[in-house]
Automatic annotation (TrEMBL):
Protein known as: Regulator of CtrA degradation
Domain of life: Bacteria
UniProt-listed InterPro entries: AraC-like_sf, DUF1465
Organism: Sphingomonas vulcanisoli
Pfam families: DUF1465
Amino acid sequence: MRADAIASRLIEGLYSEALLLADETRAYFDQGNASEREGLTPAERVLFACEALKASTRLMQVIGWLLMRKAEAAGEVPVTDPSDPGRRLEEVPAIDADALARFPARGRQLVLAGFDLHQRVARIDQGDAAQEPSQSPARALLHRLERSI
């Protein structure tokens, strides 16, 4: 399997995961947790809302980054320099561990899943920016193999 095909499948898988997680997170924070929120103090509800906003922001950044990679792969937009700051996944605020510890289990699970997904995509983004294709012997060999097939 070609490296481009592997990268494309990885992006598609992450994109599907991000969409599903975003939908679950939105549903939970919008409507699915009313009974769980009743057990929170007013201060905890504010913390809950702040973490919900950060969770949504993380997921939207991941989805945007993945959409751009999909558009580049499809030739819909020009491929840009991986080290271009406008192409990079933005850093996000850290999770408030104290607030998260007070959340209902499902809310905590969704926040942590979104944070994990953002970290995984950030590692891919950092690898893209750090790697110069012309300087990678392995990538050069892959390109030579692809041309010979």
